[in-house]
Design brief:
It is globular and about 40 Å long. Strands 2, 4, 5, 6, 9, 10 and 11 form a 7-stranded mixed β-sheet that branches. The chain is mainly β.
Length: 126
């Protein structure tokens, strides 16, 4: 079982930046593909970004491309989401997730990830 703990959320003005972190337990982190998702109030959880095991491949939702950047440090068992030029529509609870298959296809579906964190709130004011 893998535990994922997100941190770094908060309140920021439009145009600002935040960096989210997700710390994973266990020794298999480097074998997992990792993803970030978000869920706004009253909406379904949606894909934001994903990164392959060795950071060779990244995938982004169109809505965040060019503004968000996903990275990982396997030595620290941590995945990051750097969020720049934030907009009010980015307001949501952000979740990290682990795909234990290590799929290089970097899946975008919620059901394709095996482990989830508890989420961290990001609020962007206008």
């Amino acid at each position: 079982q893998v535990q994922l703990v997100e941190s770094g959320g908060g309140l920021v003005q439009a145009g600002g930046s935040l960096r989210l972190s997700c710390a994973a337990s266990g020794r298999a982190f480097s074998t997992y593909a990792m993803g970030w998702f978000r869920q706004a109030l009253g909406k379904e959880r949606e894909f934001v970004a994903a990164i392959s095991r060795g950071s060779s491949f990244r995938n982004y939702a169109d809505s965040v491309k060019g503004r968000f950047s996903i990275s990982r440090d396997n030595a620290k068992n941590t995945v990051y989401l750097q969020m720049n030029s934030l907009k009010p529509e980015d307001t949501a609870v952000y979740y990290c997730a682990a795909d234990r298959s290590g799929n290089y296809g970097l899946p975008r579906g919620v059901g394709e990830y095996d482990y989830w964190g508890q989420g961290t709130q990001v609020t962007v004011s206008s």
